[in-house]
């Protein structure tokens, strides 16, 4: 359209009704939502023709979707995975490093025990004295054995119940397992020491204490790879438990043989060694397993 100088454009109006309406275009005193108080309904009628003015005038009175509590539900938490547990990672790494250092310090002690394990010298044989560093290294390895066994029991207890509710936290359950295993080894050591002090001489007791210390330390060394593979290598729990049971069975067989070699070889008392071994070795183990089964049933809160 050509517009000459001095002329103004004539507005063109469309007779089609406007169907686009905002919320405030129909906001009147009769259509106000329940719970919204409008003091001046006439004001609503006067500004209803202008949607922007109506929204600005009643922005503080129109309900908002952001007012009040949020709707919906929280997302499900990620399932617990023992391999991603920071405390377990710290404990296993610390035990691994301490075990490697202990093996370096007690290498000669281990070599002597392996060399003389199936051979018992006569009374005229002078034993090689052990250094404090070697004995301390064996003590560190025994502590590693306690930790490895406790982690295995812990993983067995929480397996398949990662999202369950527990009387204690999961780390509390781990602490209970660790205390139970430590109590098991301490009770067994005290029981051996008392019974041996009653029936045997000092030299045999010393030989047995060194052999028992060596076997317990090597038990933990043999179990560590399976537990590490379970935590970080994807080894199934059932396979891990079977492997640990085989290691424990071999250690019990070696313990039985060493017990016979030191205490009962010369007297030929087969019945006495069975009673001795069952009372001091098998019964504490059965009690420990029974405690773990009891903890597994009673530490979880069931609704």
Brief write-up:
The protein has 303 residues and is mainly alpha-helical. The chain contains 9 helices and 2 strands.
Order of SSEs, N→C?
Answer: HHHHHEHHHHE
Structural class: mainly alpha
Radius of gyration: 39 Å
Number of helical regions? 9
Global shape: globular
Number of E-type strands: 2
Poorly predicted runs of 5 or more residues: 38-49
Keywords summarizing the entry:
two-stranded antiparallel sheet, 2 strands, 303 residues, 1% strand, 62% helix, mainly alpha
Structure notes:
Mean pLDDT is 76; it is low at 38-49. This protein has helices at residues 41-47, 51-57, 86-105, 107-115, 132-158, 170-199, 202-232, 237-264, 270-298, and strands spanning 165-166, 300-301. It is mostly helical. It has a two-stranded antiparallel sheet.
Helix-strand layout with pairing:
Elements lengths: L40 H7 L3 H7 L28 H20 L1 H9 L16 H27 L6 E2 L3 H30 L2 H31 L4 H28 L5 H29 L1 E2 L2
Antiparallel strand pairs: 1-2
């Amino acid at each position: 359209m050509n517009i000459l100088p001095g002329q103004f454009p004539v507005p063109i109006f469309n007779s089609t009704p406007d169907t686009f309406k905002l919320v405030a275009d129909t906001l009147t005193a009769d259509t106000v939502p329940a719970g919204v108080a409008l003091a001046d309904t006439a004001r609503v009628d006067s500004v209803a023709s202008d949607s922007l003015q109506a929204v600005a005038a009643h922005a503080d009175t129109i309900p908002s979707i952001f007012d009040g509590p949020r709707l919906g539900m929280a997302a499900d938490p990620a399932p617990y995975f023992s391999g991603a547990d920071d405390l377990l990672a710290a404990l296993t790494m610390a035990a691994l490093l301490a075990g490697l250092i202990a093996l370096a310090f007690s290498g000669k002690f281990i070599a002597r025990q392996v060399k003389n394990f199936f051979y018992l010298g006569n009374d005229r044989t002078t034993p090689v004295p052990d250094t404090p560093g070697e004995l301390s290294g064996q003590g560190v390895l025994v502590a590693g054995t306690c930790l490895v066994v406790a982690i295995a029991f812990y993983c067995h207890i929480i397996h398949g119940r990662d999202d369950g509710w527990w009387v204690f936290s999961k780390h509390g359950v781990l602490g209970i397992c660790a205390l139970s295993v430590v109590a098991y080894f301490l009770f067994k050591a005290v029981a051996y020491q008392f019974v041996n002090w009653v029936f045997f001489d000092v030299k045999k007791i010393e030989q047995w204490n060194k052999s028992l210390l060596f076997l317990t330390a090597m038990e933990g060394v043999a179990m560590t790879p399976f537990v590490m593979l379970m935590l970080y290598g994807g080894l199934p729990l059932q396979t891990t438990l079977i492997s640990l049971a085989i290691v424990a069975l071999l250690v019990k067989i070696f313990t039985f043989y060493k017990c016979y070699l030191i205490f009962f070889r010369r007297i030929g008392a087969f019945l006495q060694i069975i009673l001795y071994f069952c009372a001091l070795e098998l019964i504490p183990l059965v009690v420990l397993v029974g405690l773990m089964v009891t903890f597994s049933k009673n530490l979880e809160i069931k609704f």
